[in-house]
């Protein structure tokens, strides 16, 4: 798929293996989530425009390149997306942050929005963060909201994804590029990713 980028760098794959392990506790899980997100961000920001700026080195004046990270907006999907937020902000500390709260109804598997707060995003490069792209309905709903608020340049970043989730996002939002560390096998009967890593929110915050 033209809109899918699987970032299979050896460092990411190494960290992802530890992240999946049932023996990995919440402290290490949070650290690994941040580190993998940082590495994903490196690839997901290749398209960001730069501008020339003049600086002076210890030797002479020269012209360098800089990004305008004040024109970047990070949108974690609550609550699990918060685990990815610091990984992005560590590289783009001046980015704005918006929040979209969505949970998946366990009976209907449909998205339920319960909170949303976005800065002005009309001219922003927007990065929607969702650790697990399973059915894709929550991510699609968050992207819907971002677009209604005026967002146009949107990238979705995920730790792991299912083929079903990728297909769903591609059908609903073909203009959105997806960066993920892994395309897993499938969804099971309970709409969990296989082999997956369990529930990212529960493992981040030890709620189970």
Automatic annotation (TrEMBL):
Phosphoribosyltransferase domain ranges (all copies): 7-207
EC number(s) recorded for this UniProt protein: 2.4.2.9
CDD domains according to UniProt: PRTases_typeI
Residues that bind 5-phospho-alpha-D-ribose 1-diphosphate: 79, 104, 130-138, 199
Co-factor note (free text): Binds 1 Mg(2+) ion per subunit. The magnesium is bound as Mg-PRPP.
GO terms of biological process kind: UMP salvage; uracil salvage
InterPro entries xref list: PRTase-like, PRTase_dom, Upp_B, UPRT, UPRTase/APRTase
Swiss-Prot/TrEMBL cofactor(s): Mg(2+)
Keyword GTP-binding part of the UniProt annotation: yes
Protein task: Catalyzes the conversion of uracil and 5-phospho-alpha-D-ribose 1-diphosphate (PRPP) to UMP and diphosphate.
Assigned protein family: Belongs to the UPRTase family.
Name this polypeptide is given: Uracil phosphoribosyltransferase
Gene name for this UniProt entry: upp
């Amino acid at each position: 798929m033209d809109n899918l980028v699987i970032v299979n760098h050896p460092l990411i794959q190494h960290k992802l293996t530890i992240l999946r392990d049932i023996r990995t506790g919440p402290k290490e899980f949070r650290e690994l989530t941040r580190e993998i997100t940082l590495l994903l961000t490196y690839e997901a920001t290749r398209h960001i425009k730069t501008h020339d700026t003049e600086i002076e080195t210890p030797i002479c004046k020269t012209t360098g390149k800089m990004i305008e990270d004040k024109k970047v907006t990070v949108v974690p999907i609550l609550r699990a997306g918060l685990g990815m937020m610091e990984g992005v902000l560590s590289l783009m500390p001046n980015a704005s942050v918006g929040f979209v709260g969505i949970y998946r109804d366990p009976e209907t598997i449909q998205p339920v929005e319960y909170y949303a707060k976005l800065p002005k995003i009309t001219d922003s490069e927007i990065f929607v963060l969702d650790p697990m792209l399973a059915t894709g309905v929550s991510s699609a709903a968050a992207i819907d909201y971002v677009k209604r608020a005026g967002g146009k340049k949107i990238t979705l970043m995920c730790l792991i994804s299912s083929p079903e989730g990728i297909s769903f996002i591609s059908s609903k939002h073909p203009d959105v590029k997806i960066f993920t560390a892994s395309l897993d096998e499938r969804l099971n009967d309970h709409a969990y990713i296989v082999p997956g890593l369990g529930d990212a929110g529960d493992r981040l915050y030890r709620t189970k």
